[in-house]
Design a protein that fits this description.
Length: about 140
Amino acid sequence: MESSGNKLIIAGYSEYPGPRYCVQGDNSGEDFYHSILNDAFYLAVTKQEKLTVDLDGTAGYASSFLDEAFGNLSYDYSSETVKKYLVIISNQEPDWKDTIMNHIIPDWEQRRTKGNKPKKTHNHAEWYRLENGTLTKKIWS
């Protein structure tokens, strides 16, 4: 995964981002979130700096990839925190930025507040979650 400072370039993860879940295929949104995005966002939050995620340079996205990756981010950190520390670059498909910031993140915030847990299709290593103002790293059920 290519990164530059507080910038993630998804094309460095995969030129061909895959489906929503790990069990559906390679380079899934679930895998990207758990292997890359969660830790990168944690570092941005702890440094109180913005994390820029560049969506350009891939062959394109299934909306489910973006929904799973950025939805999990909102679920684990809250929409307020995500909107404070996340910047999306999407010059090739500008609508993706609007979809992520104005649809995916608020939708998953509702899911979080209702206690509807995200589906996990793989045994992931520990990941960060903001709970009661504290960032905790563990395997969440």
